Amino acid sequence: MAPPLHRAAKALLRSLVAIAGAKVTDQRTGLPAGKALFIPWRGKLLVIGLENARVSPAFLPQPHLTYWHQDLGFSSHPEPDFPHEPQAHSHPLPPPTP
């Protein structure tokens, strides 16, 4: 169970994200992924929010090749493109040869 201070801090962050967060859209599908708060911190980008969406960052294509300014987008993970096939046997070693 979380202490009362942690619960209060989470509630404060959730309300801050709801008020000042940016809308995030999935760049692969175009569907909304939710709202998030982006904070640059020590050379990293902290993303607060997007609790129910599993997204990965990706650089967006640009009309000109510039290295000093690149647009960052987020995309959801695609579904696996292989069928689930059970293994023939569960033993980790192959059967012995005669």
Order of helices and strands: HEEEEE
Calculate Rg over CA atoms.
21 Å
Please, how many helices?
A: 1
Q: What is the first-to-last residue Cα distance? A: 59 Å
Strands ordered across the widest β-sheet: 1-2-3
Q: In which range does the helix fraction lie? A: 10-25%
Low-confidence stretches: none
What sort of overall outline do the alpha carbons produce when their principal axes are compared? extended
Judged by helices, strands and strand pairing, the structural class is: alpha+beta
Note the main sheet: 3 strands, antiparallel
- Tally of extended strands? 5
**What's the rounded overall pLDDT mean?**
82
Percent of residues in beta strands = 25-35%
Q: In words, what does this structure look like?
A:
This protein has one helix spanning 4-20, and strands at 22-25, 32-41, 44-49, 55-59, 72-76. By secondary structure, it is an alpha+beta fold. It has a domain at 19-76. It starts with a helix and ends in a 22-residue tail after the last strand. 4% of the residues are buried.
Descriptive labels:
two-stranded antiparallel sheet; 98 residues; alpha+beta; 3-stranded antiparallel β-sheet; extended; 5 strands
Summary, kept brief:
This protein is an alpha+beta fold.
Topology overview:
Layout: H1 4-20, E1 22-25, E2 32-41, E3 44-49, E4 55-59, E5 72-76
Antiparallel strand pairs: 1-2, 2-3, 4-5
